[in-house]
Amino acid sequence: MDLPEYSYWIIAGLAFVIAEFAVSGLVVIFFGIAALLVGSLKFLGLLDDTAWELTLFALTSLLLLVFVRRVINDKLMGNERPRGEGEADSAGLVGGRATVADAFNNGVGTVSYRGARWQAQCAQPLHPGDMVRITQHDGLWLTVEPWMPGPQTPPAE
């Protein structure tokens, strides 16, 4: 069974798109989109030369990775807090939701955030399992407050 040349691009494109589900990171899918585009253009008879096919595939993949990936990644992995808030927090922790790991004694305890344990301080008593919002990040210490759904005002500095 001899497949037409465009079908190889289509098969490769579909394989890349499916592979994105196994290899997360929003990278492989753009190779798939580029391969599907080249396969479609080849099917329509708009591409005949292998050099042009490879050039179009490489350029389309690169442009999608550079320009579209950032936009889609921001939409899919959006932040809870509005832009402009917590600019001084270079680690991006302020506004995040953490879980109390150890009870707070004298205003100090431990919270879990993204799989890591942090020393934290809070003026209110907190118990293991309580949800908290990170309001300040200073070195290895976090300042937290009890979690309340909805938009929160930034802490006064």
UniProtKB/TrEMBL annotation:
Superkingdom of origin: Bacteria
Signal peptide positions (record): none
Keywords: Membrane, Transmembrane, Transmembrane helix
Protein name in the entry: NfeD-like C-terminal domain-containing protein
Gene source species: Alcanivorax jadensis T9
Membrane protein topology class: Multi-pass membrane protein
Subcellular localization(s) per the UniProt record: Membrane
Pfam families linked: NfeD (PF01957)
Limits of the NfeD-like C-terminal domain: 92-146
Annotated TM spans: 6-39, 51-72
Main location: membrane
Coiled coil: none
InterPro entries: Membrane_assoc_protease, NA-bd_OB-fold, NfeD-like_C
